[in-house]
Every structure is written in C-alpha cells, then in structure tokens.
C-alpha cells in the first residue's frame, strides 16, 4: 500500500463536495484524473469509499469512518511539516546539556536563561556528570554539548574555552590565614582538606593532588562533598580548608575567607564541547553555541 497525501486530499475534497466535477475544480485537476485517484485509493485500501450513480455521489459508511481519520491526519501532517521546518532553523527541538559545578556556578545559568528567552520552544535537559564521562557521552551523541573541566582529549569532539580561572585557598573566617592577602601553598601543608567526592570530581582532584605534590606535600583529605555548596559549607563549619577556583560568590559567602596563592598554580579551564559530526546538521545546537559565545563576549 502506497497511499500518498494527494490521495487523501482528493478523498477529502470529494467527501466535502459529493460531486466529482466541483471537487476537481477546487483541486484544479481534470475530473478524469480525480476519478482515477479515488479509484486507486479504493483499490489500495480494498474498500469502497463512495457510491456513484450518473447523478449522485454518496459516501459509504467505510468512507465516513475514513473521513474522520483523514480530517485528523491532514492537519497533523501540515503541523509536522511546520515543525520540521522550524527544527531545521533550530527554533524548536530539544538539547541535552552536561555540566559540572564550575559551569553551574559560572556562566551556564546565564547562557541557558538567555537561550530560553530567544528560543522558548526548545526544551533543555541539564545533567551533571564527571568531566571525562561527559566528553565520552558527547562523542557518542548521548549529550549534545557539555561544560566540563578541560582538556577534552577526544578526537570526536570540538571545544571552546569558556573560562580559565586561578586557584585560591578557602579557609574558615576564623582561621589563622583568613586575614592574609596571599600565601605560599606551603602554608597549607599541615592543614586538613575538604574536597569534592573523588568519583565525581576526579579530574579536579588529580589536578589539585599533582599541584600539592609538586610543592612538596600530600593533601590530608578528611571530608568529601557532592557539590560546591557542600564543600564551602564544610569549610565554613571549620572542618578544614580547600582549594577552589576563584569565584565572585565565594567572597560573599558567610563563614569563609578567600586567600590568594603566591605561586601560580594550574589554570582551571572550563570548556564547552560538542560532537564534530553532528554540528552542521544540528541548527538548534548551533544557536545554543552562538548564544554561549555572546554571553562569553559580554560577561566572560
């Protein structure tokens, strides 16, 4: 069975007019061609849709049932065409975006808010994953884009730098170092540390552990937390100190002090990555990345 839209439109017009001549005029086709189209449709369906005489055309019971279905189907098809055209322009659809804590406490909320204002018919799903897992999911097409700790280290993805931030020490506001403007990292040698959980903050863990080892000591990690709020609140509670990216929100958080480090440490880079192969056909993602670039230019 190979029923086409032209068969359905022809049927609908004859059902409306119950007159082949008038239906043909409205469709701007020859009456014999319209008659053949209806006969072809009835042959494919193996159903008689109309009863014809030399003077009248009546619709059969089967035709009445089919008409109700066609009346629902044709508008749906037209709407599907509109949606497909909008999707090609990137104004409807869905995006699956991965993120880490640094992105969520950085520019990602601004990017998402601005994108949703510009493209309200695009739904956005946000999920938090470890950085290496996000890059893998982007390469596999399971995520459209991801905001993660650099580098991407995958030949299947492209990336743009979102932010490059320096490390600072965060200590309780009653700590002996709280009033210091800057300190050498060695001042933290004997401190207890609070960090993010190793299973979800693994890439950041490795950077910080290596940084401390390069400066002659092993971190004594006594407490781990799932997210940034938990880490900083544990510091505020006096359970230890931490190393974190310098962020505006830290300076307004009660119970902690931000202390800069004398010697330059590793820059903490947040990247946005996407799958190379998918981008040319994914206009919605292109629009999202364009908004990200605009936000970065204005607020980065």
From TrEMBL:
Domain HTH lysR-type: residue ranges? 3-60
Tagged with keyword Transcription = yes
Keyword Transcription appears in the UniProt entry: yes
Q: Name one Pfam family in it.
A: HTH_1
| Record keywords | DNA-binding, Transcription, Transcription regulation
GO CC terms, sorted: protein-DNA complex
Provide a Gene Ontology MF annotation, just one. DNA-binding transcription factor activity
* Top-level lineage group: Bacteria
Check the UniProt entry and state the signal peptide residues, or none: none
InterPro entries given in the database record: LysR_HTH_N, LysR_subst-bd, WH-like_DNA-bd_sf, WH_DNA-bd_sf
Regarding protein family, the annotation reads: Belongs to the LysR transcriptional regulatory family.
Q: What is this protein called?
A: LysR family transcriptional regulator
The organism named in the record is Neoaquamicrobium microcysteis
């Amino acid at each position: 069975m190979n029923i086409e839209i032209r068969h359905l439109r022809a049927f609908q017009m004859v059902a409306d007019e119950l007159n082949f001549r008038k239906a043909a005029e409205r469709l701007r086709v020859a009456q014999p061609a319209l008659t053949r189209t209806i006969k072809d449709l009835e042959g494919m369906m193996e159903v008689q849709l109309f009863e014809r005489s030399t003077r009248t055309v009546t619709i059969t019971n089967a035709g009445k049932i089919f008409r109700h279905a066609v009346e629902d189907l044709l508008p749906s098809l037209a709407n599907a065409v509109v949606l497909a055209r909008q999707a090609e322009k990137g104004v409807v659809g869905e995006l699956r975006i991965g993120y880490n804590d640094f992105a969520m406490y950085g520019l990602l909320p601004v990017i998402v808010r601005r994108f949703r204002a510009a493209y309200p018919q695009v739904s956005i799903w946000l999920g938090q994953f470890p950085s290496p897992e996000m890059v893998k999911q982007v390469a596999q097409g399971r995520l459209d884009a991801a905001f993660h700790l650099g580098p991407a280290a995958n030949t299947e993805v492209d990336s743009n730098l979102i932010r490059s931030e320096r490390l600072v020490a965060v200590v309780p506001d009653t700590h002996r170092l709280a009033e210091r403007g800057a300190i050498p990292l060695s001042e933290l040698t004997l401190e207890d540390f609070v960090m993010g959980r190793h299973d979800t903050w693994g890439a950041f863990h490795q950077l910080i552990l290596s940084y401390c080892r390069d400066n002659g000591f092993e971190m004594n990690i006594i407490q781990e937390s799932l997210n940034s709020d938990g880490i900083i609140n544990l510091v505020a509670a006096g359970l230890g100190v931490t190393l974190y990216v310098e962020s505006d929100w830290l300076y307004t958080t009660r119970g902690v002090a931000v202390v800069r480090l004398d010697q330059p440490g590793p820059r903490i880079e947040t990247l946005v990555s996407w799958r190379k192969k998918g981008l040319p056909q994914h206009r919605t993602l292109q629009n999202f990345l364009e908004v990200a670039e605009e936000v970065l230019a204005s607020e980065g």
